[in-house]
Please model this.
Amino acid sequence: MMDGASASQVTAVFVDFGGVLTTSVLDSFAEFGAQYGQPDLPVRLLTTDEASRRLISEHERGLIGADEFEQGFAKRLRAHGVDVAADGLQERMKAGLRPDEAMTALVMGLRSAGVPVALVSNAFGRDSYAGVDLDALADAVVVSSDVGVRKPSRKMYEVACERLAVAPEQAVMIDDLQQNLDGAARLGIAGVLHTSARDTERQLAERFGITR
Model:
């Protein structure tokens, strides 16, 4: 068994958006913090500060809008010595993100080869997927703000399985965060920790026999 699934069982691919189909979200946040001399502050607050964690959780689940998140997180940044304007905060935090063309080509190649693909993504900000042809990328799209839960909740992966009509043991999740793979594994979904398109393509082929 491999992360709850054998190579012969896996037939479908679930893929994250930010940090997989784009460059690293964490690096972009660090670039934003570096403008104020604190590159680690945004991620540290979003992962360890209770108020900030609540803001990002509620925003990604669609419980609060972008404006409310920006107002709240700007306040938390200011409380830690970073004087920022709330308006447009999310876009400034994401300014360092770029599409990963190699990963996009890999995912589209998998679909062309007949591999079912689901995008399973936590939404962050206004128009998170603006300019992206999601229909060309995936057979199913599961976005946290649409379903009211966020990764690593099992529900995200259950919805993806339902929409692709596959059992958890038939799927592999590609994500750049181990915690999200751990959530998928609790349902029996195998995982690939993404670091580069080349390595992810190698793991899909060697571990699961999935090629484009």
Q: What stands out?
A: The first strand starts at residue 12 and ends at 15. The chain has a mean pLDDT of 94.
